[in-house]
Amino acid sequence: MRQVKKQSKIGVLRTVFTSPSYLAVAAASAVFYYFLFFYMIEYSNRGLFLLTVPIYLMYALIATGAVLLTVSAYAITRSIRMAPVGASGSVLSVFTSSFGCMVAGCGCYAPVLSSILYIIGFGSFQVSGAIALMGNYQVEFIALLIIINLAFIYYQTSRITRIGRLSRR
Amino acid sequence: MPRETKRAKKGSGNTLTYVSMGISVLALIMAVVAIAMPHTKVVTIYQNATVPTTTVQALAGYDITSNLPAPALTLSDAPIITTAGTPGNNLQDINAQLNASELYVINKAPDAYFELAGEMLLNGTLNNSVGIKTSSVPLFKVNGKPSVIYLGSTTCIYCAENKWSMALALSRFGNFTYLFHGYSALKDGDAPTLYWTPVRYNTLSTAFGSFYTSNYINFIAIEDSAPITGGFRLEDLGTLLGRANETNSLAYVDALKYIGEINTFGGTPYTIWGTYVAPGADAIAFGNSSKQITLMNMTHADMIRMLQEGKSQMALTEYAGADYYAAMICKSTNSAAAICGLPAIKKIEATLS
């Protein structure tokens, strides 16, 4: 007979981050996101690493993204019922980190954002509005992405504690 | 008493999950970067190579008659700041006119510097990046002359470093009666630069016009401005168009409409040189090498001296950027300006589609 062992949200995080394998996932994803961030800033700025937002915000985004990705991996591997939550969490983690990298470079020149917007059918006037919005509220956008990461970490740990860890014979 | 649970063996299903997740993450990132490629590719010029240019289809050119705005030489609500600051917090001499000797360096730069920089660009001995993928558009003619159109922001760091190249290029086809000391926003590098006119650096506004005259071309300058003590800020094209309407200058209103029609705007600086659209700075010159950022620790006097000496990699990058812009004008307007006869300019022209 299967038994359910319930954990608190803190207990879930403790379980994840006291496991060597998940610690390795967290470290690897943090390193990956850091290089992604560095590469995208340099790419957008044509070889120059020019950051126009406080660097501590980028570190916070990288850290929360790595935690989210690790908790997602835990969710996927623990239970088939948690897999969709874990999968969505991992995709969200990549999205928030990538979008944050786009925003963190010079707000004046947004080749990645404009490329995407033109492809989906925007015109110059709409693109200029999007660039203006992103450039004018860079710090706020990154703070919002950090909050989204934290909210999804909370949501995932809540789901994990609700479903519980199933024993396997 | 509940049984102790045992951790299940990690089966092949978990491995597959990890691999799938990793592949999907990598695919997503590659997709984002791949989408970005066409608009951001830096073009390296090689002799006899052809630089690809995208042709914007189904655009009608403009051929209009218009008055051009006459900007003020001083602004009482944006006075010159005389106190010196530290790099990153310095606005000394903002809105002050370049003096005669400074203006001479821009207006009368020796052709030899343009030639040397052009040859270095062509043989790949410049340390910095020069070149940009262009789009081809019909001419925007005002009062019978083709135009150079500039859309930028005083707060923008790339506009700041690019305006030195722009001024050098424009000086080959005409003359600046006045130029002004400027800076990018304090939270966007505080880089020393040139302003085409005095700007309202402490409020949201847009400056139209310049003190540039030429027998060959018009210079349509649109410079958006925001509080210089903040970060980068830009108004959208619709807002700029509304402000242009207040100038009663058809040239500026139609220039913004034209930028809207071209559908390549991706940020500032955004310039049109004859039939070539440059959707960004054509040269990245923040220091003497591609990894150096020293512009923000420099003064206007430092930049002027470097341009006057014409020896440093940074100065030569600015001249090479000017060559690239000049070549666009020469090719698209069959200009009789002297610079168009320089061998390096002719070679750069040959690389443009």
Question: What is the fold's blueprint, element by element?
Answer:
The complex is a heterodimer of chains A (169) and B (353).
Chain A: E1 4-5, H1 9-17, H2 20-44, H3 55-78, H4 83-104, H5 111-119, H6 124-136, H7 138-163, E2 165-166
Antiparallel strand pairs in A: 1-2
Chain B: H1 12-40, E1 53-55, E2 62-64, H2 100-107, H3 111-123, E3 134-136, E4 140-142, E5 145-153, H4 157-171, E6 175-176, E7 180-183, E8 192-195, E9 205-208, E10 212-213, E11 218-225, H5 237-245, H6 250-262, E12 270-273, E13 276-278, H7 300-309, H8 313-333, H9 343-351
Parallel strand pairs in B: 1-3, 2-4, 5-11
Antiparallel strand pairs in B: 3-13, 4-5, 5-12, 6-10, 7-8, 9-11, 12-13
Helix pairs in contact in B: 3-8, 3-9, 4-8, 5-6, 7-8, 8-9
Which terms would index this structure?
heterodimer; A: 169 residues; two-stranded antiparallel ribbon; 7 helices; 76% helix; 2% strand; elongated; B: 353 residues; alpha+beta; nine-stranded mixed sheet; 9 helices; 36% helix; globular
Q: Could you describe the 3D structure shown?
A:
The complex is a heterodimer of chains A (169) and B (353). Chain A contains 7 helices and 2 strands, in the order βαααααααβ. With 169 residues, chain A is mainly α. Chain A has one domain. In chain A, strands 1-2 form a two-stranded antiparallel ribbon. In chain A, α3 (55-78) runs antiparallel to α4. With 353 residues, chain B is α+β, with helices and mostly antiparallel strands. Chain B has a domain at 53-108 and 134-284 and 295-309. Helices cover 36% and strands 15% of the residues of chain B. Chain B has 9 helices and 13 strands. Chain B has helices at 12-40, 100-107, 111-123, 157-171, 237-245, 250-262, 300-309, 313-333, 343-351; strands spanning 53-55, 62-64, 134-136, 140-142, 145-153, 175-176, 180-183, 192-195, 205-208, 212-213, 218-225, 270-273, 276-278. In chain B, the strands form 3 sheets. In chain B, strands 1, 2, 3, 4, 5, 9, 11, 12 and 13 form a 9-stranded mixed sheet that branches. In chain B, β12 (270-273) and β13 (276-278) form a beta hairpin. The longest helix of chain B is centred in the first third of the chain and has 29 residues, at 12-40. Chain B is globular. At the A-B interface, α2, α3, α4, α5 and α6 of A face α1, α4 and α6 of B.
